[in-house]
Design brief:
The protein is an alpha/beta fold and 734 residues long. Helix content is 45%, strand content 13%.
Length: 734
C-alpha cells in the first residue's frame, strides 16, 4: 500500500469482509466522504456494477448502483443510491444518437436525465444523479468521482492539460487522461467512454474546472487509486508551494494583519445583525463565520481581492458561493467599525449591480428569473469570512465550499495561474433548468424556517418544551438558562433528534447546528449583552425571544417575605424581562427585521391569593410591562405574553418539597413515600378540577401558545396576554 500523507487511508479489510457488494459500495463511499481533502460535503459520487437477480426474469443481470441526486458520501446509506439496469443505461446511447438535436447543453442531452427513470432496477425510488452516464459508460465495475482540492487546483490552472501530463506519469506513460470542461451529463459520459476505449491503460481522467474520476474492477484498488491520485497531486503542489516561499508568500504575501481573536469576535458581534438585516430583505439568512489561520491567510493577502473577483471554478462550489464572494476593502489597522459599515454598504450595492449585470449578460430566453442578488460569502481583511444560507447547515456548507475554493486557489497559484469558470458556463450551471426543477421539487419550507429564536429558561419546564416545539417548525433555537449545563442539555436533545446538518465549517460556536446552549443571568444587563453577542456570532442575529424564566418565592414560616426575596422576585419576573427587551431592542433596530418578544406572566396576576404576594404582584407588573413594551417596540417588534395557570408537571418551580407542602396545604390525601411523578400527578389533577376544562395544564400547552405568538398566525396581535389556564374563571379579564 502506498504511504499517504495528504489523505487518510481508512479502508480496513476486516470491516469489509462480511459485507455484500452494495454494503462494500456504501463502505467505500463513507470512507471517501469522511476525508474533506478527498471530496466536499454533498459532492462527488461513487458506483459499482453488481450482478443481481432480476425480479422479473430470475436471471442475473448487471445493476449499476450509483449515489443518487443529493446526499452526502460521508453519511450515505443504501437509501441514497439509485439502482439501474446497466444494459438499459448503455442502451440509452442508441436513443440519444437518434436525436437530431443532440449535443452539449442541448435539449436532447437534458431530456436524457428523465430517461434514467426507465432503467430503474427493482422499483428503487432514489432519483439518479446527473453524473450517471459517467459511471455507466466507463468500462470497470467500480468508479469514484471526487472533488479534491488538490485535483481541482490542477483542473483550475491555466495550463491544466499540460500539468496533468507532467504530474501523472507512471513508468513513462500517463496514468491520467484529460478532458476539458464540459457540463456534467450525457456528452461528458460519451467523451469519457471514448477516452477509455482509445487509452485502455488509463484508469483516471482529469475533468477541467471540475474534479476527476477513477475506476477499477476491484473496489479496494479503485479506492486506493483515488487516494493515490490525490496524494500525487498534493505532493506536487506542496513542493512547488514551498519552493515559492510557503505560507509567508502565499497569495502574494500578507497585506493586512489580523485583529486578535477578542477583537474579531467583538467586531463580528457588532456588524453581523446589521449585515443580516441588509441581505435579508427578501428572505432571511443565517450566518456561519470562519476566522481560522487558513482563511485569514488568504483574506489578508495582496492577491485576495483579485482572486475573489475571479470567483470559484468548481461548479459544486459556486452553486453555494455564487459567481463570486463579496470582498470588503477594509483596513483593520487604520479604520473603525463605522467605516467598515460604510464600506460594506457600498460593496453590497456594487455586488447587487454586478450580479444583475451577470444575469442579464448571460440569461437565455428560457432562463429562470434572477435569484437573490445578495452575496452568500463576505470576505473582510483582518476579520474573516461570513457565509450565509437559508439555515445553519447550508451556511456551514457554503463556508466549507469557500474554504475549499481558497485551497484550490492556493494550489493553482503555486503551480501555475488560477482561472475561474467562464461566466456563461457558470451561469448555465447556476440557472440550469434541471437544477431549477430540482429546486422546485424541494418541499416547502417550514413555518419558522430561517428564524433564530432565543428561549430563556430553556433548561426545564415550559422553556424546554417551547424549545422543542419551535424547532419542529424549522426554527434555530438558542437555549438560554441561568444553569448553563441544563441549557446545553436541551440544545443537545434538539441536535440529537433533528441532526447537526451537513457541512463541516464554522469557527468556534459558529460551527453549531440547529440549537446551542448559553448561560445568562437576565437580572444582569452585561450578562444579557454577552449572550446576545454570542448569538450574533453563532447565527448572525436573532428574530424572536421567548422568556419563560421566572421564580416563585414562598413566605417564611411566619408568613413574611424577606426584603431580599421580594427584590429577587421582581428582579427576575419583571426587571429581567425589561432588561432583555431593552438590550434586544438595540439588536432588533440595528438588524431592521420584524421580530417577536413573548413574556411569561401568570393567571395569578389577576387573582389575589394568600401566600404568593411577591409572585402575584410581580406578575401583575409583568402584565403591564407587556403593554408598555408593545408601545415602545412597535412597529418592528410585537410583544405579547403567555399567562399559564399552575403548571406542576415538568416545572422547576415545583420541586418535591413544594409539591408535598401544597398537598398538605389543601389537605389532599397522599403518601410521603410516593414517587415524585405520583405526587405531581395528584397535585396537577387537583388544580385541574378548579378549571372549566378539568384538564391538567402542561408545559406542552404553554409551548403551543408560544409557537402561535412567534409565528405569523397572530401577526396582528401585540400588547396582549394569552391565558393558557384551562379556563380559570377567577382569572377572566375584567
Amino acid at each position: 500500500m502506498t504511504s499517504f500523507k495528504h489523505v487518510h487511508h481508512l479502508w480496513i479489510d476486516a470491516e469489509v469482509a462480511a459485507l455484500d457488494p452494495v454494503g462494500r459500495l456504501i463502505y467505500r463511499s463513507n470512507k471517501l466522504g469522511a476525508d474533506q481533502r478527498i471530496t466536499n460535503t454533498g459532492g462527488g459520487n461513487t458506483s459499482s456494477k453488481i450482478s443481481q437477480k432480476d425480479p422479473l426474469t430470475g436471471e442475473n443481470v448487471a445493476v449499476l448502483w450509483v449515489k443518487g441526486s443529493g446526499g452526502d458520501l460521508r453519511t450515505s446509506t443504501k437509501e441514497n443510491f439509485a439502482s439501474l439496469y446497466q444494459e438499459k443505461v448503455v442502451g440509452l446511447q442508441r436513443v440519444y444518437s437518434a436525436r437530431a438535436d443532440k449535443g452539449l447543453k442541448s435539449p436532447a442531452e437534458d431530456e436524457m436525465v428523465a430517461m434514467y427513470n426507465h432503467t430503474t432496477f427493482n422499483l428503487n425510488p432514489r432519483a439518479s444523479s446527473i453524473d450517471t452516464p459517467l459511471h455507466s459508460f466507463l468500462p470497470s465495475k467500480h468508479v469514484d468521482h471526487m472533488h479534491p482540492n488538490a485535483i481541482i487546483a490542477i483542473a483550475a490552472s491555466k495550463n491544466c492539460a499540460a500539468l496533468t501530463k507532467e504530474i501523472f506519469v507512471d513508468a513513462g506513460s500517463p496514468s491520467m487522461a484529460y478532458v476539458p470542461w464540459m457540463r456534467p451529463g450525457f456528452e461528458l459520459g460519451l467523451a469519457m467512454q471514448e477516452i477509455a476505449k482509445q487509452q485502455p491503460h488509463i484508469k483516471a481522467i482529469m475533468m477541467g474546472q471540475h474534479g476527476f474520476i477513477s475506476w477499477d474492477d476491484d473496489d479496494k484498488a479503485c479506492y486506493e487509486r483515488t487516494l493515490s491520485m490525490i496524494e500525487t497531486a498534493s505532493v506536487f503542489i506542496e513542493s512547488k508551494y514551498q519552493a515559492k516561499g510557503g505560507d509567508s508568500k502565499a497569495f502574494g504575501g500578507a497585506k493586512h494583519k489580523s485583529l486578535d481573536e477578542l477583537q474579531r469576535r467583538s467586531t463580528f458581534a457588532a456588524i453581523l445583525p446589521w449585515l443580516r438585516g441588509n441581505i435579508s430583505k427578501n428572505k432571511r439568512f443565517v450566518a456561519t463565520i470562519q476566522d481560522d489561520h487558513a482563511i485569514l491567510r488568504f483574506i489578508n493577502s495582496h492577491d485576495a481581492h483579485r482572486l475573489a473577483e475571479l470567483g470559484t471554478s468548481c461548479p459544486d462550489h459556486f452553486l453555494r458561493t455564487k459567481i463570486k464572494p463579496m470582498y470588503v476593502a477594509w483596513d483593520p489597522q487604520s479604520e473603525d467599525i463605522a467605516t467598515l459599515r460604510k464600506k460594506i454598504s457600498a460593496a453590497l450595492e456594487k455586488y447587487r449591480k454586478d450580479y444583475a449585470a451577470y444575469y442579464n449578460a448571460c440569461k437565455r430566453p428560457n432562463s429562470p428569473a434572477m435569484r437573490d442578488p445578495n452575496p452568500t460569502v463576505v470576505l473582510i481583511p483582518g476579520l474573516g469570512m461570513i457565509a450565509w444560507g437559508k439555515d445553519k447547515s447550508e451556511s456551514r456548507v457554503t463556508a466549507e465550499f469557500y474554504n475549499c475554493a481558497v485551497e484550490v486557489m492556493r494550489g493553482a497559484e503555486a503551480i501555475d495561474q488560477y482561472v475561474s469558470l467562464p461566466q456563461q458556463e457558470a451561469f448555465d450551471i447556476e440557472y440550469w433548468l434541471l437544477e431549477e426543477a430540482k429546486l422546485q421539487r424541494m418541499p416547502a419550507e417550514k413555518e419558522l424556517a430561517r428564524q433564530v429564536i432565543i428561549v430563556i429558561g430553556a433548561g426545564s419546564g415550559i422553556g424546554k418544551e417551547t424549545a422543542h416545539r419551535l424547532v419542529k417548525e424549522g426554527a434555530h433555537i438558542v437555549c438560554v438558562d441561568l444553569n448553563e449545563n441544563t441549557a446545553k442539555v436541551t440544545a443537545k436533545e434538539i441536535t440529537d433528534k433533528h441532526g447537526l446538518g451537513i457541512g463541516v465549517a464554522g469557527s468556534g460556536i459558529s460551527g453549531c447546528g440547529p440549537a446551542i446552549g448559553f448561560e445568562a443571568d437576565i437580572t444582569n444587563r452585561a450578562s444579557i449583552r454577552t449572550m446576545l453577542d454570542q448569538v450574533a456570532i453563532a447565527y448572525g442575529g436573532f428574530d424572536s425571544i421567548c422568556i419563560t424564566a421566572g421564580v416563585f418565592v414562598p413566605p417564611d414560616t411566619t408568613g413574611h417575605i424577606p426584603d431580599d426575596k421580594w427584590a429577587f422576585t421582581f428582579a427576575l419576573n419583571v426587571t429581567g424581562s425589561y432588561l432583555v427587551a431593552d438590550e434586544a431592542a438595540i439588536t432588533w433596530k440595528d438588524q431592521g427585521l420584524a421580530g417577536n418578544l413573548v413574556l411569561t406572566t401568570s393567571a395569578n396576576a389577576l387573582v389575589a391569593k394568600k401566600g404568593s404576594l411577591a409572585y402575584d404582584t410581580s406578575k401583575a407588573a409583568a402584565n403591564h410591562l407587556v403593554r408598555e413594551l408593545a408601545m415602545e417596540l412597535a412597529p418592528l417588534v410585537r410583544v405579547n405574553a403567555v399567562a399559564p395557570a399552575t403548571v406542576v408537571q415538568g416545572s422547576s418551580m415545583f420541586p418535591r418539597d413544594r409539591v408535598i407542602a401544597s398537598l398538605a396545604k389543601y389537605s389532599i390525601a397522599h403518601e410521603a413515600s410516593e414517587s415524585d411523578d405520583s405526587l405531581t400527578n395528584i397535585l396537577s389533577n387537583f388544580y385541574a378540577q378548579r378549571t372549566l376544562t378539568k384538564s391538567p395544564i402542561t408545559p406542552a400547552d404553554q409551548a403551543e401558545a408560544y409557537f402561535l405568538l412567534v409565528s405569523n398566525r397572530l401577526s396582528k396581535t401585540t400588547g396582549q396576554v394569552i391565558a393558557v389556564d384551562g379556563g380559570l374563571h377567577e382569572a377572566f379579564l375584567r
